[in-house]
Specification:
- By secondary structure, the chain is an alpha/beta fold.
- Strand 9, helix 14 and strand 10 form a beta-alpha-beta unit.
- 40% of the residues lie in helices and 13% in strands.
- The chain has 17 helices and ten strands.
- The relative contact order is 0.13.
């Protein structure tokens, strides 16, 4: 009798490439989790992504690890099929599938969710405006001298949260891009979004509070492994995020690629992080340590730049005997990610352009009523024809 009265857990399925996992992915998964109790996330292989979209930036192993670290995810299914089937939902005992309100099609123009839609086992959530993997790749491809000239402009005033748009060419990453999905709109940070991502927790009096600080730009597996190691040093992990201007000072002319509020949400989505200090001081001060009751301050193996006045930013925690250097075993940096993009620049330019054109064709066809993304053979043929032309 007790078992019969127990509420049946609603199991939700999501799937995708999750390449360069960003706060848009995390927000989609947060919304999906809110529709049920258990969230299962399928991640596609490198081979499948290359076939249908173009080369991924991150390897499948890196993408599996990144998705597992998102705090709303309960289970990751490796090598999920590109087209979501009822067999997949049944295999993992999922009630329905959730996806954003953007278009996702195969290389042949087939709606990847047509089977679950037809069966009534599909739910839709709002896509996060202002960010996409295509957009982030485009930002890195824009790392030019002209970008450097603009960086000090777009970090201030009414353009503080926009991205330099010069020389965007055919990348489909700025507000002039014709696709409503790859086009980069201005990201509008709100307190509500931060609250939605926040854990809402405070450290207990007995908790050992750990503090780390940095840029955490283009949040990646190197950051993730470091935060996992830092999390092991205590009970409550606080991450200090430096301002855009501060990051630009110690990282160089082209950084950060993501603005402060984008970086805040990316870090808050990580399951190892309990709290974030927005615009943290570069030097770890006594006031900061006392206010948050910090017991240990950690830093990775990367070199530390001196503060503006030439002082060691970790002088105070070192004097207090609570500074610790961590070796996460992962040497990846944001620079490494940018270099991946630069090395394969032409491939990613083609990928971005192809994706934008595909979405544009599908959007126009849907608006004119020429096709319906329901898996019908005739409609699929028309969609493929529109995409190829």
């Amino acid at each position: 009798m007790n078992n019969e009265k127990e509420k049946k857990l609603i199991r939700v399925w999501c799937d995708g490439c999750y390449d360069m996992v960003h706060f848009g992915h995390a927000n989609s998964l947060r919304q999906a989790k809110a529709l049920g109790d258990v969230l299962i996330v399928g991640v596609h292989t490198d081979e499948e992504i290359a076939k249908h979209k173009g080369p991924p930036v991150f390897t499948q192993e890196e993408r599996y690890k990144m998705v597992r670290a998102i705090k709303w995810v309960d289970q990751v299914v490796e090598g999920a099929p590109y087209v979501t089937t009822l067999d997949t939902l049944d295999k993992y005992q999922c009630d329905f599938c959730v996806h954003g309100d953007d278009i996702t099609v195969t290389a042949d123009g087939i709606d990847t969710y047509h089977l679950v839609k037809e069966a009534g086992r599909y739910r839709e959530v709002m896509r996060t405006a202002g960010v996409s993997t295509t957009d982030l790749v485009g930002r890195m491809l824009l790392l030019t001298r002209e970008h450097f000239k603009n960086i000090m402009v777009f970090r201030r005033g009414d353009r503080e949260y926009t991205v330099a748009l010069e020389h965007s060419s055919n990348l489909g990453t700025d507000s002039t891009a014709r696709s409503p999905y790859t086009g980069c709109s201005q990201f509008l940070p709100t307190t509500q979004k931060i609250i939605q991502f926040s854990s809402g927790l405070s450290p207990k009096p007995t908790d050992r509070v750990v503090y780390v600080a940095g840029a955490f730009d283009l949040f990646h597996v190197g950051h993730l492994d470091f935060l996992e190691e830092a999390h092991k040093q205590g009970d409550f992990l606080i991450v200090g995020l430096h301002t855009d201007l501060e990051v630009n000072r110690y990282k160089g002319s082209n950084y950060p690629i993501m603005n402060l509020h984008e970086r805040v949400l990316s870090v808050l989505a990580c399951k190892y992080v309990h709290e974030v200090v927005i615009g943290a001081p570069y030097s770890v001060t006594a006031d900061l340590m006392d206010h948050f009751r910090v017991k240990v301050v950690c830093h990775g193996l990367t070199a530390t730049t001196l503060d503006v006045d030439g002082s060691d930013p970790y002088k105070v925690p070192k004097e207090r005997g609570c500074f610790k250097v961590l070796n996460s075993g992962n040497t990846m940096t944001t620079d490494d990610i940018v270099q991946r993009i630069i090395r394969h620049r032409l491939e990613f330019e083609v990928r971005n352009s192809r994706k934008e054109q595909k979405e544009l064709a599908m959007t126009k066809a849907l608006q004119k009523g020429h096709i319906k993304l329901n898996g019908d053979c005739d409609h699929t043929a028309k969609a493929a024809s529109l995409i190829n032309h």
